[in-house]
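pasting input
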Amino acid sequence: MSIIDTIVQGVLLGGLYALFAAGLSLVFGIMRLVNLAHGDLIVLAAFLILLLSSALGLNPFFAALIAAPLMFVAGWALQYFVLNRTLGNDVLPPLLVTFGISTVLQNGLLEAFSADSRRVSIGALEGASTGLGPLNVGLMPLITFLSALTVIFGLNQLIYRTALGRAFRATSDDIVTAGLMGIRPQRIFAVATGLAMVVVTIAALYLGTRANFDPTSGPSRLIYAFEAVIIGGLGSLWGTLAGGVILGVAQTLGAAVNPEWQILAGHLAFLAVLVIKPRGLFPRAVD
Amino acid sequence: MTAMLETRGLRAFYGDFQALFGVDIAVAKGETVAIIGANGAGKTSLMRAISGILASEPGMIVYRDEPIGALAAPDVLARGIAMVPEGRRLFPSLSVEENLLIGAYRRNGEGPWTLESVYELFPILRERRNNPATALSGGQQQMVAIGRALMSNPDVLLCDEISLGLAPVVVRDIYAAFPRIRQTGASIVIVEQDIAQALKVATQVYCLMEGRVTLSGHPEALTREQIHQAYFGAPRHEHH
């Protein structure tokens, strides 16, 4: 029974990793931009939720609801005024600029919030659990996983069922011809990054309520997000969910054998997938 | 006839390379203008400049008395000038129907073109509506590209090399749609290597050579010798 229990815990943890990764996957899928500050933006959103919930005494879920549009605007502006200028045939400028942003964010947060590790309190929900068949699972991990499903389902609906989603895909295919359709790629990219920041806020809610975080927590979140995206195959959102789940299960299985092996097992699973399927499990047909 | 769309001394560059050297063309409302010329004559550059892909100076392109030479492609489209680009350039991630719908992303007001009327123009596309656009034959892809441009309800339709690489029978099918497009009152500018085809559909012909207009006039008024000289830069008899 305990092995099944471990796997279920891993799947639920995978939901968190998928949330970390979904925004990264969305942005990469549309504009081939690798955002090295993604993890730090998650931590920034976590601090924003912490600030709103502690200063205004708001429930963290409600605080996230307020933080999400703020993060959308921040993401929109970041893309429109900064990152759009780095896009082109050369992959280096976006990497350098987002690396710089990562450093600025970490130090800015350190300045504003000190190096103390924080946590967003959710009161009674914290230790609550519920029966899932014969298993007992934590309510928050379950909510996290369901949120990940909802986010990825929602993003897929947006991308494949709406005019905005068509514009995303068309711009990703051929930016010059997209212009001939009346699409302004700069704005499409800004909206995409804004959306990614809404997903980042949702990820931050669960990051902040699940474990401690501090201004330097970003890069390790970025690694998990990257691994989930690469395992799933670049540009596929359901693949990203699968990648998150594989990472989560590998980590909890590793931890069950030896607590020190948790992180290592995740990285090994990532490497194993890379060896067997270098383009990930569900690569996009068109690249 | 007063021109709806004009280029005035249009010059255009790719970096340091000059592609157009003072091109003047005029397109009246409802007219079909053909641009002919050899490879590298500047035909595609002219289309790219008008559609806003290739930058020029504001007053070098005038549309409804407005200088539009410096506008970006989305702004040119918003004014009612749509382009069928060379090589079709369909979006591979989108189905046939989605390619058509993306053409209506920013419509030029109300107009005759809808999914329904494009499917009436090219019935085969209705059958293939859910296929990936790039899974279609070359001729069908060209129909999608034309339909996609029509979906914006253009007042001027620019068609760049729509018969390139297609079998003559397919080209005939595609040109068969032109009378219906003209009925909507739209002006059409075609770039065509097939001179006979161009002379058949056009009311006005311009021949380009090395980035300059070497000949213009009504198709009936032009002689084979004139066209030959404008096209190749030498009188016909010298080639014997």
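fyi Chain B has one domain: 3-239.
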